[in-house]
Design goal:
Chain lengths: ~300, ~270
């Protein structure tokens, strides 16, 4: 089931199309990594999806319902750009206010649970303006989680976090996805971090969706070649050419064989062992994920 | 909408700006009362003159005027000057713009797609806000003179209650003006400036002057600052309610519509 589906979603600011005929699809249980350069239209798309901005054209459905649908809205937790928090109130009070807005039963208990979930103390009394960036970010995720949403829209959730904070946030998001079955749409600039948790990616450039790809497809696409090193290079090459009918391969001067075709590494290993050839190295060389994304996003500048 | 109003009320009573506005209002009223007492007391005037202060005939007339004031005279002399309008306007500006400057408006509008609920909640809150300030100020103006042994001629409770009601309504409408402006501009500075300019009666004076130059009808009398001033006159007591009601209603509708349009048409 598509949790989010957009059809030709577009948003124009004056003469500039921030989002241009965007078709996006997020399935139930996905951790959807939404990637793009600065100004590519990620935040505008998220704003359109949570009703903060109105589309110029096109349509967006959340859980199969228009985004204006109040029932669908309550299933969505959001963290768009900076966390929206009253600076003079404590984190707990901010959550209490949001719980009041949601009309939750036993708000005090739920607020304390959420604070513990995001790793903040319910007893913390200081106002939010004295929180560190990381604490604010966690509290922002806490606000998004309040009310038990089924979908989280998170815009740069690891912004400003230290490495430890990033790891904790990653673990929290993975836990929410696995244990509570939450679907997550996360936009982030930190591609390496995103690639650790995302199950599907959407790459946006100048407001248009360039590519939607699952992590499995991505891994396959990033697999460049099979690297092979044996004690008898020439014999290995001849054997593989004969048995596997290889056409795209090369023998490197340092004695390494690179196979650019899709071949099963296990089969290669079996053939060589049967022929009595000692395998020194047999591995898949992968293209760096970041390089792949940068290439698809239209270059390495300003990412 | 009721959840939103509950949230707004909770925030109102937890917010520092509301306490500060109430505190400043109380302190200023206290200062005005003490000054009025100083002028009204003939012994104080004599003492000041003995110390070399120049006391002229108009000072003595003023002293006599204050001595003969009733509770409502004294109250309206202080509250009808636009001081309460300014405090209400600044308070509402700080409260409403707090949603935008903090970004909490994103949380509100993500969960509730109907922007009119937000405006309705704030309209109700403006009524409560202006009501609290009006009632507090009236209570202080009844209590403070007694505390410093100044006893203006008492007015009946029904008259005081009527005064509270007719003062509250234009203040509510004025709070809606700042609401509309903040929703349109999302600027605290502009909200505060407008509260000062409009609340102090500067716009009334300007429009009046312009009207006389251009031979317009006296439009300025329908402004909220003028309506507040006209709620009560010492000679005839509480003045025709129709004008106040009509002004309040007209401006409230105008500002309410403006607020609604600003919220509906603009992205967050």
């Amino acid at each position: 089931m598509a949790v989010i589906q957009t059809m030709g979603l577009s948003k124009r600011y004056k003469d500039n199309w921030a989002v241009d005929h965007l078709d996006l699809r997020v399935e139930q249980g996905d951790i959807y990594g939404f990637i793009g350069r600065n100004g590519a239209g990620k935040s505008t798309t998220l704003k359109l999806l949570c009703g903060l901005a109105r589309p110029t054209r096109g349509e967006a459905l959340i859980f199969g319902k228009p985004i204006q649908d109040p029932v669908a809205r309550r299933q969505v937790g959001t963290l768009i750009e900076q966390p929206g928090l009253y600076p003079d109130l404590s984190g707990r009070e901010n959550l209490r206010l949001y719980a009041t807005l949601l009309g939750l039963d036993s708000p005090a208990r739920q607020v304390d649970e959420i604070l513990e979930t995001v790793g903040l103390s319910p007893k913390e009394k200081k106002p939010v303006k004295h929180y560190s960036m990381g604490m604010k970010q966690r509290l922002g995720v806490g606000v998004a989680l309040l009310g038990g949403p089924d979908l989280l829209l998170l815009d740069e959730p690891i912004n400003g976090l230290d490495p430890e904070g990033i790891r904790e946030m990653r673990e929290l998001l993975l836990r929410l996805n696995r244990e509570r079955g939450l679907t997550l749409l996360i936009s982030s600039h930190i591609l390496g971090e995103l690639s650790k948790i995302a199950t599907r990616y959407g790459i946006i450039q100048q407001g248009r969706m360039v590519e939607e790809i699952t992590s499995g497809e991505l891994a396959q696409k990033c697999t460049d070649y099979l690297r092979l090193q044996t004690d008898q290079t020439r014999k290995t090459a001849a054997l593989l050419e004969r048995d596997l009918h290889l056409s795209r391969w090369e023998m490197r001067p340092e004695g390494e064989i690179r196979i650019y075709e899709a071949v099963d590494a296990k089969t290669v290993g079996r053939i060589l062992i049967q022929a009595g050839i000692a395998v020194e190295e047999l591995s898949l060389h992968r293209q760096d994920l970041e390089s792949y994304f940068l290439e698809r996003m239209g270059g390495a500048d300003h990412v | 909408m009721f959840n939103m109003l509950r949230m707004d009320l909770r925030r109102l009573f937890k917010s520092r700006s509301f306490s500060i506005i109430l505190g400043v209002t109380a302190v200023l009223l206290m200062m005005v009362t003490v000054m009025a007492y100083a002028i009204a007391d003939p012994e104080m005037m004599d003492a000041m003159e003995a110390q070399g202060a120049e006391i002229i005939e108009s000072d003595r007339m003023m002293s006599e005027y204050i001595q003969n004031m009733s509770q409502l005279d004294l109250m309206h002399e202080t509250l009808g000057s636009g001081f309460l309008l300014v405090m209400t306007g600044i308070g509402m500006t700080l409260f409403v713009n707090g949603d935008f400057s903090s970004g909490f408006i994103k949380n509100i509008c993500c969960i509730n797609s109907r922007r009119r609920d937000y405006v309705l909640s704030k309209i109700t809150l403006a009524g409560i806000y202006s009501g609290i300030i009006t009632v507090l100020s009236v209570l202080l103006m009844l209590l403070l003179p007694v505390l410093i042994h100044m006893y203006p001629a008492p007015d009946s409770i029904s008259q005081i209650l009527r005064y509270v009601l007719w003062m509250w309504l234009p203040h509510w409408a004025f709070a809606l003006m700042t609401l509309a402006l903040v929703l349109l501009t999302r600027s605290t500075t502009l909200g505060i400036i407008l509260s000062l300019v409009a609340g102090s009666g500067l716009t009334v004076a300007l429009v009046g002057m312009l009207g006389r130059l251009l031979r317009w009808p006296p439009l300025e009398q329908y402004f909220l600052a003028a309506a507040v001033k006209g709620v009560y006159t010492p000679e005839s007591g509480i003045t025709p309610i129709q004008t106040i009601l009509a002004c309040t209603l007209a401006w409230a509708v105008l500002y309410g519509m403006g607020s609604l349009l600003s919220m509906e048409k603009r992205d967050i």
